[in-house]
Amino acid sequence: MISSPVTQSAFQLIWSWFHMSRARKNIQYIYRAEEMSSLTILGGILLCAVAVRLALRKRLRLCLPPSPPADVLIGHLRVLPDPQVTPEVFYKWSLKYGDVFSLSVPGKTIIVVNSEKAANELLEKRSAIYSDRARMAYYDYIGWKDAVIFAPYGPFHARQRKLYQDAFGKNVVSEYRSIQEREANTLLKGLLDEPANFDSLSKRFAGGVVTEIGYGHRIDSFTDGFFSVGDRFAKIAGMGANPSLLDLHPIFAYLPSWAPGAATIKFIKETKPFMDAIVHDNHKKVVQQMKNGTARLSFTAKHLEAAFGKEHDSEEERAVRLGAAMIFTAGFETTWHFLVIFIAAMLLHPDAQQKAREELDRVVGRDRLPDFNDRESLQYVQCVINEVLRWNPVNPIGFPHRVMEDDVYNGMHIPKGAIVIPNTRAFTWEQSKFHDAKLFKPQRFLPKPEGSGEVLPPSLFWGWGRRVCAGRYLAEGSLFTAVSRILAVFTISPLKDAKGHLIQPEIKFITNTSRHTEPFTCNIQPRDVRARDLIIESCQD
Ligand code: HEM
């Protein structure tokens, strides 16, 4: 500290002031009294300035956002909650420590953001410095560190975002409507034939849309290899959220099989070939199909075609390869889990189902299925979708960002390199925004006086700033098609036991990186013969 020039001069000043005072006392000093007093005032002012500066520095150093009690060496490592309850525990902590609190684990500061206002201020308005991602060793290991969702903020990330923008911008996604509608019809037919299988059928719908859009590959059966890749990726994503030995050093990849942590690393190693296959093999297939003239419309074909005739750009090709692989992985589990949570919500809320059906009958009629042209007029159906997203968000903890510069928020220091976690669960429970926040009430989003006129900011589910979901408009289309068509033709109700009594549904949620339900049963039946005929007809088109 003594070495700082300001502190040095302050030190000299105190020293001379001390000597001068002594000299004045002895009446031996040559300065006149007036000079002495002005010097003393000047010294005092400078001293105050130095004191204020030091206090500010200290304040900046100390003023991380508040945090729960921590251990001396390992910080909050011991109190980090289990992923299953993390969103809710963070929410509880936010009531005690404020809407922005901090956690420390060795080598990392974590900032948890619990209000939409704070997330908007940091992740949206200051997105120029809040758009990096933390390195996650698992993804590095499987060769996905530069895939758009994990990529550091920089030119290669921007390049992939541009590919997404060109393929999935608001005004472009209509190109994929026929794929979404066809897959939705397959889902309806599946529900008609095997209603108890709604979980796998929802999974197939989600997978079917993204594999065709990514690569032009149509999923024809539940044994399609894409499903196992999707499951493995989901498992890695779950593990990737936790600190691992690989984060400390890549040498831990060579742990002997009996060592703690080795099983996880073994799983990652075994999974690498699957992940390579998504990135390379599917890309190669499309290249071959393009040569044969058999390629279907897809993200990969579209971008390769755009590059056709131009000088070969290996970085562009790498961006297309990784970008396509990410469509499958980012858009698969999210859409699938959303649909199952939607079915659970309808099972628990027959009144909402009935209201949505009345709207569908009024707007669409009974002779056809709803389509994208009806979307604007199906206001209540859209409220149901929004309320499912809010009631039990698929990603109750948003994808972490990383801050690239030191920053100050409300007088609190956000250090460069900190991981910033948006706690979506807490945003959706903000009482000031959502009345009876824990209840499922789609009408909250209807305008007054019919509803409560509450507003759902899109960032709550699609993310923030320069990392906002790059497939949002596509995903919104998939959710709308599947939800509106299911509601138009099916009734979802509790099953009955042998004595004809309704089995009261109990829905339990599992949270890993995304939220899903534990298996539950329900009765999904066509509303009537007319609805059954419509389902069968729509699958013959
Ligand atoms: C229900 C469906 C979906 C939900 C709820 C969802 C949600 C999200 C969220 C919360 C993020 C993180 C945003 C942030 O970091 O602030 C994200 C990122 C992303 N999503 Fe989605 N998503 C869905 C479907 C899709 C689909 C279908 C695609 C592909 C077409 C997709 C592609 C991406 C990509 C590429 C990113 C990374 C963006 C980046 O880091 O720059 N998502 N999504």
Molecular structure report:
With about 550 residues, the chain is of the alpha+beta class. The protein has helices at about 5-25, 35-60, 85-95, 115-125, 135-140, 155-170, 175-195, 200-215, 225-240, 245-250, 260-290, 300-305, 315-350, 350-365, 380-390, 425-430, 460, 470-490, 530-540; strands spanning about 100-105, 110-115, 400, 405-410, 410-415, 420, 490-495, 510, 515, 525. The chain has a 4-stranded mixed sheet. A two-stranded antiparallel ribbon has the order 4-5. Strand 1 (about 100-105) and strand 2 (about 110-115) form a beta hairpin. The longest helix is centred in the middle third of the chain and has 35 residues, at about 315-350. The chain binds protoporphyrin IX containing FE. The site of protoporphyrin IX containing FE has 28 residues, from helix 6, helix 13, helix 17 and helix 18. Protoporphyrin IX containing FE binds near residues 164, 463, 469 and 474. This is Cytochrome P450.
